[in-house]
Amino acid sequence: MPAIELTPAQRKEQRSAAHHLDPVVLIGGDGLTPAVVREVDLALNSHGLIKVRVFSDDRAAREAMMAKLSHDLNAAPIQHLGKLLILWRPPVPKEKAERDDRMPGPKVVKILKFSKSGNHRPQVKKIKVLGNQRIAAGGEVKRARKRVTSVKKTQQA
């Protein structure tokens, strides 16, 4: 699988997006082992844009590692900056289960009750709310019901 070719504008955009990232894969003294390649592949699947730190002083070896990773994993080499390699691969679209018959499930909601004096900590109460329930303004759990429409609107329909 050849490496992905990007235009300079696309590469610049990816470089700016990678600026704040931390390295997720570290390549040590053993170099590019199959386990490291597998970790880089998993990181690309998870994040799409990653930084790889190489603990090697040989620049030619780092360039060879970047070329091998981008070629083997079908990734685009974005930048080689010192001992950091930046790689990008477009994310794989995830399949979503088509289920229209499902209702919203139960969820846990935190309710804060503040003290009247303001000197004490608020009380935190966790309540399980089912799909057909809602939280009222006073913190009470009420059953959700259909919205009441005006009499005029019901007569017109």
Task: Describe what you observe in this structure.
By secondary structure, this protein is of the alpha+beta class. It folds into two domains: 81 residues, 2-Layer Sandwich (Translation Initiation Factor IF3); 41 residues, no CATH class. 29% of the residues lie in helices and 25% in strands. It contains four helices and eight strands. β3 and β4 form a beta hairpin.
Compose a concise summary of this entry:
Helix content is 29%, strand content 25%. It is of the alpha+beta class. The chain folds into 2 domains: 8-88, YhbY-like (Translation Initiation Factor IF3, 2-Layer Sandwich); 103-143, no CATH class.
Biggest sheet details: 4 strands, mixed
Q: What's the N-to-C terminus distance?
A: 62 Å
Approximate shape = elongated
Domain count: 2
Over the alpha carbons, how many angstroms does the gyration radius reach?
Answer: 27 Å
Query: What name does CATH use for the topology of the largest domain?
Result: Translation Initiation Factor IF3
How much of the sequence lies in strands comes to 25-35%
Task: Detail the topology: elements first, then pairings.
Layout: H1 8-18, E1 25-27, H2 34-47, E2 49-54, H3 59-72, E3 76-81, E4 84-88, E5 107-113, E6 123-129, E7 133-135, E8 141-143, H4 151-156
Parallel strand pairs: 1-2
Antiparallel strand pairs: 2-4, 3-4, 5-6, 7-8
Summary keywords:
two-stranded antiparallel sheet; 157 residues; Translation Initiation Factor IF3; alpha+beta; 8 strands; single chain; elongated
